[in-house]
DNA sequence: TCATTCGGACGGTAAACCGT
DNA sequence: CGGTTTACCGTCCGAATGAA
């Protein structure tokens, strides 16, 4: 009855999920397969007990221990899982066969950060700590902080290479291959990093090397990262099962961020799994989801949160309007390699050729404009700055 | 009373940064 | 190159809500 954190007692000795001192009625458990399964990650099944309670430092409340990879069911239910594969919860609900490891997204790469604030060891911890909390002087000339709404790019616009393989299998991860070409730091850098406020005072935004190319790359990028507003109601799966419908919020996140890459990824995996004959309801579930995603019209929806990244391209007003016109119909096909998934996700409307030529033209224009720009530095720059400061984003100002 | 849903705190860890 | 810092992203606690 004490206010003792759940995990504190739960993870201690007997009642913990790990070796089956689980809260689950033993009758159920008895039918279960022995909780001895090597994890996909190659981790041993019961790490928690071992390190969960250091026991030496008794005073501080033990940290919550998480499994490396929850099963899909638990994941959707936001419930505690286990390393054992038919995990206790699934066993309990009799859905053991759908108990499979969830797939982790590949972590974003290429996210630029501002300079680190040096946190010296423990000399003046007091001062530093306070300093830490309040976070360094709000120096304007610095990418102050990522968490600032201005800085955080709407997250990487398009998905990852997504040869994914979950974290457990480093091998198949091909670091972007061709993708790398398209996806590059400058384009996904937090805007304020690119156009550092400090530099503003210098009167010229510092573009990263290769800004010229990135210029054209940005276009495709920006309409992405959004997704149709939540009008997808899931099919009829799972409305009664212990596998809840996915969190909407969560779903959104995932969808929004995975957009391109991930569904490819899943397709791959699904194929794999299917070939292995492991098509469980869970997989079907995913399939359905992704089909739905793909079928979404994927409206360009130029608004929402992107007053961020494109500010830097606010210069070149002429181009801007050009791209304006060009972006509208354009759904969102940044698609790095144009060959992979574009086919699936592009709505039937635009012939890709057209798009391609548009891109080409646009890029030409961009480079041309840039050259022109560098020839006549002043006017345009101030121009852009004005537009930057004044109205961050003319085209979708609310 | 039990089950389900879900917001958000928390934890783990990969990736970026940075001094050497 | 290795240590440090940062933040992405997954896990799951616990309150709210619903169903039996
Ligand atoms: Zn589970
Ligand atoms: Zn499970």
Structural summary, described in words:
The protein is mostly helical and 398 residues long. 40% of the residues lie in helices and 0% in strands. It has 18 helices and no strands. It has helices spanning 6-10, 26-30, 47-52, 72-77, 88-93, 125-134, 179-182, 185-188, 191-194, 197-202, 211-221, 248-258, 261-275, 281-295, 317-327, 342-345, 352-375, 377-390. It is globular. One zinc ion binds next to helix 4 and helix 5. The chain binds a DNA duplex (20 and 20 nucleotides) through residues 5-7, 63-70, 74-75, 77-81, 102, 104-105, 107-119, 146-147, 155, 167, 242, 244-245, 247-250, 253, 257. Residues 70-101 form the Zn(2)-C6 fungal-type domain. Residues 105-119 have a biased composition (Basic residues). This is Zn(2)-C6 fungal-type domain-containing protein. Residues 126-149, 214-233, 267-276, 287-313, 335-349, 373-387 have a biased composition (Low complexity).
């Amino acid at each position: 009855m004490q206010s003792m954190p759940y995990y504190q007692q739960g993870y201690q000795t007997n009642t913990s999920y790990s070796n089956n001192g689980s809260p689950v009625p033993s009758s159920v458990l008895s039918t279960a397969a022995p909780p001895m399964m090597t994890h996909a990650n190659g981790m041993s099944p019961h790490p928690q007990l071992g390190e969960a309670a250091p026991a030496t430092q008794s005073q501080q409340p033990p940290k919550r221990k998480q499994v490396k990879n929850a099963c899909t069911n638990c994941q959707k239910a936001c419930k505690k899982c286990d390393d054992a594969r038919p995990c206790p919860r699934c066993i309990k609900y009799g859905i053991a066969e759908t108990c499979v490891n969830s797939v982790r997204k590949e972590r974003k790469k290429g996210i630029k950060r501002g300079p680190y604030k040096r946190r010296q060891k423990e000399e003046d911890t007091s001062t530093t700590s306070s300093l830490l909390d309040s976070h360094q002087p709000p120096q304007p000339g610095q990418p102050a902080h990522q968490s600032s709404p201005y800085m955080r790019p709407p997250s990487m616009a398009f998905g990852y290479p997504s040869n994914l393989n979950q974290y457990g299998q480093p091998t198949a991860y091909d670091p972007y291959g061709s993708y790398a070409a398209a996806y590059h730091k400058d384009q996904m850098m937090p805007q304020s990093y690119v156009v550092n406020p400090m530099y503003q005072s210098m009167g010229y935004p510092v573009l990263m090397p290769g800004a010229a190319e990135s210029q054209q790359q940005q276009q495709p990028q920006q309409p992405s990262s959004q997704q149709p507003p939540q009008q997808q109601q899931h099919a009829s799966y799972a409305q009664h099962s212990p596998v809840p419908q996915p969190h909407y919020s969560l779903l959104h996140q995932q969808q929004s961020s995975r957009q391109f890459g991930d569904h490819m990824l899943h397709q791959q995996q699904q194929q794999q799994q299917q070939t292995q004959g492991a098509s469980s309801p869970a997989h079907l579930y995913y399939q359905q989801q992704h089909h739905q995603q793909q079928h979404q019209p994927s409206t360009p929806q130029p608004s929402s949160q992107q007053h961020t990244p494109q500010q830097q391209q606010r210069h070149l007003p002429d181009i801007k309007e050009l791209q304006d016109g060009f972006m509208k119909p354009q759904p969102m096909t940044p698609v790095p390699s144009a060959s992979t998934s574009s086919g699936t996700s592009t709505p039937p409307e635009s012939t890709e050729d057209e798009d391609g030529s548009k891109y080409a033209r646009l890029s030409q224009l961009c480079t041309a404009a840039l050259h022109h720009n560098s020839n006549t530095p002043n006017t345009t720059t101030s121009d852009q700055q004005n537009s930057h400061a004044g109205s961050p984003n003319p085209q979708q100002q609310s």
